[in-house]
Amino acid sequence: MRKYQDIPELLEQFMQDSGSDARWVTVQELRDRFGLTRYQCNTVSGFLRRLEFGAFGRYPYIVLRIERVDGEGPAAPPKCRYFITRKDLPATGTLNMRDHARVLSRRLVYPE
Hints:
4 helices, 112 residues, Arc Repressor Mutant, subunit A, globular
């Protein structure tokens, strides 16, 4: 994070621009949108993994789920997609935040 401190702001802008409070995101989408370098993408991936295990200060988003997806070709390495949601989304019924997000993530369709 010390090498590229704008990652939290870029992710927040990306989520606001998408108009949703919860969605699947890949590092490649962020790279394409903001013109990031490969080095910066490693930092983005590390930041997203950090968000899975705990809140980042007062940062409004958390990662509730990380899934590995196959690469586009046989030689392409597998990639990860991250289910990002706002921390302050109200849970429905007796579900806690993570259960609520799992239910919501099953309803979202990830564009291929």
